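Appendix B, example 12.
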Amino acid sequence: MRKFKELLQDRLKQKLNAEELQILPTGFQTIGDKAILTLRPELMGYKEDIAYELLDLFKTIKGVYLKTGAILGDYRTPQIEFILGENCPEIIHREHGIAYKFDITKIMFSKGNINERARIATLVKPNETIFDLFAGIGYFSLPIGRTGKPQKIYAFELNPTTYHYLLENIELNKINKEREIIVPILGDSKVEALKIPEKADRVIMGILPSPKEHIDTVFQIIKDQAMVHYEGLLNEKETEENLLTDFETQAKAYDRKIDLIKTNYVKSYGPKVYHVTLDLIIHEALP
């Protein structure tokens, strides 16, 4: 099958010059039945033409959107605008048997993390108490709730819009049908997690950049031994120690010991920069 860029080049060769044809996108992101394009500035004047051809080539795509900038603010809002087709940004995206409902113009969703969401769910042992400090729309809480057999997942989310979709997704996936497995909590996990009387067997810190300001909270909410999944960025010259430093400082303050179990490379984040997850066990220091 011919590549997407080649198909576009063939269809747009009468409208674009040779240089413009060479910088056409090699692909696009599909979320639900919507496509999100990233275009070079030189091609912005042709965005409708490119979107039209995309819709004609891929009949399952119902609407085309354009990424116009980086993720912004504390709520990590994507910069996305509608181009052509159906302008209905609220979609349902399915992966590993989980349905995620959200608005692609308001909520960031990384398909590159698909394997990491599934991986962490497989690590959960029966009857664990889990604190998901940055739950989002249920990226980790939903697959864990479906397959991990936890006792309870406390899912914290700061953004009211995202929290709304977290509630919808818990209902959509029938996670709490028989008993309350996921407890959604609106607010800053640095504050709200300290109000929970139970302690955590596992803490998920699934947000970039590394949420260093939440590390102190982790040591206050965990049991004598707990697993922590800590996300961060490493360039090719850095090692895990660059991410562990802040944890080790707090560990001494709480008389705890840290063992690094695994460094999981999630995906490439940029030129020679990688998104990683550190799987850590924190336990009491030996006398």
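Residues 117 and 139 are 7 Å apart (CA to CA). The chain has a mean pLDDT of 92.
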